[in-house]
Input
Amino acid sequence: MIPQPHASRSRSVLALLATALLLFMACGGDSPAVATQSTPSTLEIEAALRATPGVSGVIEVTSTIAGTRFFRFQLAQPVDHTVSGGPTFPQTITLLYRSRTAPVVLATTGYNISTSPGPEGEPTRILAANRIMMEHRFFKTSTPSPVDWSKLSIRQAADDEHRVVTTLKPLFSGKWLNTGGSKGGMTALFHRRFYPEDVDATLAYVAPINLANGDPRYPPFIDGRGTTAARLAIEAWQQAIFNKRAEVRALLQADATASGDTFNLIGLDKTLEFAVLESPFLLWQYGTATLAAQVPAANASAQTLYAYLNQVHSGVVSAWSDSTLTFYQAYYQQCANQLGYPANKESHLTGLAYPGQDLPNLYPPQNASKTYDGGASMQDIQSWVSGAAQRVILVYGENDPWTAGALEVNGTAQLRGVWKFIAPSGNHGASLAGLSATDNAQAYALLGQWLGTPVMPAAAQPIAQNQKGEGTPDLLETFVVRRGHH
Output
């Protein structure tokens, strides 16, 4: 826990004095000192950041994106926003800067962020916008010390975003869009639910809302992907692994030993079982019908069966090792308490040793209290979308398993500007560019109307796979994504 620096409080006092003097002059005051006063809103952007109360550690990094500057810094955030004057922690933030008048994209991955310029996601590119990227609380460097897991909630995270908006909004005159992909999209929606006036619109990509800790909507959705023959072949492959469990487990252990990784947190045998159970989900999350068609025959060797498991997970060891599970422990904590988690299909398999146990309660942090709220938090988000949300675009992929948890949008919500678009054949990399021509034009028109700025045609701004949301490529490069790691 880091108390707010005295220097920040001093800057705050100076800023307030400067503002008071400017107001005095506007009302007819003639003090010559007023004419030389500067506020963050009138300073050059780097100086403005340094003069902003609560901001520290401003560093400019050479931007790789033409016409932009790139900064990273920290903002002091209360560990508990309900306690005035309590301890704070430094939240890592980056700014990709174009101009004071350009639109502002406020983005989060819902996890950690990269502190290098990186590629632009779709929203920043099509809007020619500034981008403020913020790391989610309890991830990487944005973690209070000591860790108090009770302060990791969707409301506290929304409060973080609200503080970012209120702190940095005076530096820009353009309209604001908050956005994110998957957990980042969920986080953007949570922010907007609690602070609907902070930004002008929300663009949430592939953002699921689970209604149970073991949400039963997912297995039927996955069963509907691809052909019946492909589904049966995948299920036969799963059973074949369990029939050769000892051999495949030995291959997994050998890979872990070779890379210096361990499975101590949940154990080698559970890791294998859970990886096999989650494979149909993973196959469709980032794979396609082509990958589904490559499933080996049930009578294949243990080495061949394991090789396909490795392919589906883009590396079983890297996706399930102790270091990876620990890195994402804040995600599992959120799932166990508020976010919920998908259920696996298990009824077609024999020989399971841990049926029904692949739930976030089992994952780290293992010393934290985990009490699921029964779906109340996510039901609240659905109720907000149905009854109050305005100017929201939701994008999902037709074949992405997370679409089983897509928010429902009724006719009344659409009248308030809530739109849901499905990318044909899209997976978890679904984007506006992947929509039908009609839906793409509609989404662009809405964004242009809400943000008061031209939106670049999709053809002029091609978006690579998995670059739909700001920061998503950096997350994918950090760890191989599996089901639990959007």
User: Anything to note?
Assistant: The mean pLDDT is 89.
